[in-house]
């Protein structure tokens, strides 16, 4: 900071904050550092930059602004490990040495500035500047995927219309599923019926030589009962499924007859011409 010129501090102050900090780092000869990982260096740069901005805003000449920056750097370095009473005495001594370059009023303003900033938070600065940080940071490289290319606006669908279409599609899918379930049940019952009849036939063949009329009648009644039960279950399922399909169709019909309200289309060229003509005639009247 001792070699910092008046032109250098003027350039730092006249730049925006982030650009000014970067320019100040270059003038100080510091290497590029990570603001998050090297917090101590970042705070030192903030303190130095803030002191230059303060001195410039108070109207100090540029050589005096550079002198305030030098004083700030010395305070950050020389007060490390000192109690606050000794830090105040050190600040007083350094301001006394700077009085030839600063008017008494300006020296008082600079003293107030350091008391309200550096001395006020002295213990916090001591904690940051005198103790090493225990870095426990994990770096992860994340891939950012951009959004897909949107479709043309004319190919889009209004939100309510899209919901309406989804409801119709869901009802159609439910109806198709009902029909599929009914066919699967019919096949299963048909297979059960064939299995029961085959079992009856096997019993008849096994007792063909000793089969009497009563046993045969019993087997026939059992076969008929099996057929009736299968047909009854099929009919009952078909009736229930048919009512459910009709209910789904009724819901689809109701939705189709009550589509969502859409925004009116833009007026055609003919409509605009008629509107313009009507306005002209109205003005003539």
From TrEMBL:
PANTHER family associated with the record: COILED-COIL DOMAIN-CONTAINING PROTEIN 189, SIMILAR TO 4930578I06RIK PROTEIN
Originating organism: Alligator mississippiensis
One Pfam family per UniProt: CLAMP
Region named Disordered: 256-285
Name under which the protein is recorded: Uncharacterized protein
InterPro entries tied to this protein: CLAMP
Origin: domain of life: Eukaryota
């Amino acid at each position: 900071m001792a070699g910092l010129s008046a032109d250098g501090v003027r350039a730092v102050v006249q730049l925006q904050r982030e650009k000014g900090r970067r320019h100040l780092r270059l003038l100080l000869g510091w290497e590029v550092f990570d603001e998050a990982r090297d917090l101590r260096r970042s705070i030192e740069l903030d303190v130095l930059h803030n002191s230059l901005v303060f001195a410039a805003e108070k109207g100090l000449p540029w050589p005096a602004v550079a002198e305030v920056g030098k004083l700030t750097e010395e305070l950050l370095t020389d007060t490390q490990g000192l109690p606050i009473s000794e830090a105040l005495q050190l600040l007083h001594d350094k301001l006394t040495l700077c009085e030839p370059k600063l008017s008494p009023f300006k020296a008082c303003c600079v003293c107030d500035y350091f008391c309200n900033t550096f001395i006020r938070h002295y213990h916090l600065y001591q904690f940051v500047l005198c103790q090493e940080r225990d870095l426990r940071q994990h770096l992860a490289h994340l891939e950012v995927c951009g959004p897909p290319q949107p479709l043309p606006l004319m190919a889009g669908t209004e939100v309510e219309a899209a919901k309406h279409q989804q409801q119709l599609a869901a009802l159609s899918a439910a109806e198709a599923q009902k029909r599929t379930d009914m066919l699967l049940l019919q096949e299963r019952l048909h297979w059960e019926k064939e299995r029961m009849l085959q079992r009856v036939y096997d019993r008849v063949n096994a007792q063909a030589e000793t089969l009497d009329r009563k046993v045969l009648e019993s087997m026939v009644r059992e076969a008929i009962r099996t057929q009736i039960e299968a047909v009854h279950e099929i009919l009952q399922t078909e009736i229930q499924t048919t009512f459910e399909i009709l209910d789904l169709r009724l819901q689809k019909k109701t939705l189709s007859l009550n589509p969502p309200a859409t925004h009116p289309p833009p007026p055609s060229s003919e409509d605009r011409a008629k509107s313009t003509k009507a306005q002209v005639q109205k003005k003539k009247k």
